[in-house]
């Protein structure tokens, strides 16, 4: 599913290009760098991170290089505000992988995006050695499988725990993200109220899920960030901006203390800091998009 203007997507499809390319290989087990493609000036911003042996430490310095230099095998097409592309960037950062990020203008989609995802023409798309993989949940599992042993694992080793993590990831897309959008842009008060009730119910359910999955530890994944943390992490800024956008307080110190503490903890981690947008900027953008929709 795609939400107009925000590039949401929640189906799970992997699409590989019908082309011959180099074999799939694991990334560099040394120092990772997050590379951002600035298409307007044909420059790339490179942020050096810590070693994959300690991927949660503070990011290092920044430098610019001309486009075309130091090409990487991983390239991500996304938008700065889309929670589905955001979760892929979070996964890459937490894994400590080096990648190139290209910001897409959804009003003027790049030829690379259209060629890489001709079925849905949506972000995110991860291109690995020339092969595109589409849809965020599928991309996350692909990253975890291909780069197994590099950085922290997203999915648990136990089959039951893996199945449970996948369940909650799908729940977040279907029961949190979808009704949140209805709450935000519903055409009638009834539609908005329905979205609000469904969103609040999902938040309550996720509070219980965090209690059960974490077993008193900091994250859904236990001691370390895992699959569900990354999936929900893409919504952190949107959830923080919900009161300003919809007049609804999603998280409360008495009703959802675990989720509130989780969100603060997650947002302070360096791999998340370099990805999550500023809430004020996000709110301003979302209000503008909602006003534009109202004029149509």
Explain what you see.
A hairpin with a 2-residue loop joins strand 6 and strand 7 (131-134). The protein is α/β, with parallel strands linked by helices. Helix 1 (83-95) crosses helix 6 (227-233), helix 4 (159-185) packs antiparallel against helix 5 (189-214) and helix 4 packs parallel to helix 6. The radius of gyration is 19 Å and the shape is globular. The chain has helices spanning 83-95, 111-116, 136-146, 159-185, 189-214, 227-233, 236-240, 242-246, 257-267, 270-273, 279-295; strands at residues 31-38, 43-51, 62-66, 74-78, 99-103, 125-128, 131-134.
Jot down its keywords:
296 residues, 11 helices, seven-stranded mixed sheet
How are the SSEs placed, and which strands pair?
Layout: E1 31-38, E2 43-51, E3 62-66, E4 74-78, H1 83-95, E5 99-103, H2 111-116, E6 125-128, E7 131-134, H3 136-146, H4 159-185, H5 189-214, H6 227-233, H7 236-240, H8 242-246, H9 257-267, H10 270-273, H11 279-295
Parallel strand pairs: 1-5, 4-5
Antiparallel strand pairs: 1-2, 2-3, 4-6, 6-7
Per DSSP, the total helix count is 11
Label the structural class.
alpha/beta
Shape, per Cα inertia axes: globular
What's the Cα radius of gyration? Answer: 19 Å
Low-confidence sequence ranges: 1-71
Mean pLDDT: 82
The SSE order reads EEEEHEHEEHHHHHHHHH
What is the percentage of strand-forming residues? Answer: 5-15%
What's the assembly state of these chains?
single chain
The helix content, as a percent range, equals 40-55%
Strand order of the largest sheet: 3-2-1-5-4-6-7
DSSP strand count:
7
Largest sheet: 7 strands, mixed
Q: How many angstroms does the end-to-end distance come to?
A: 21 Å
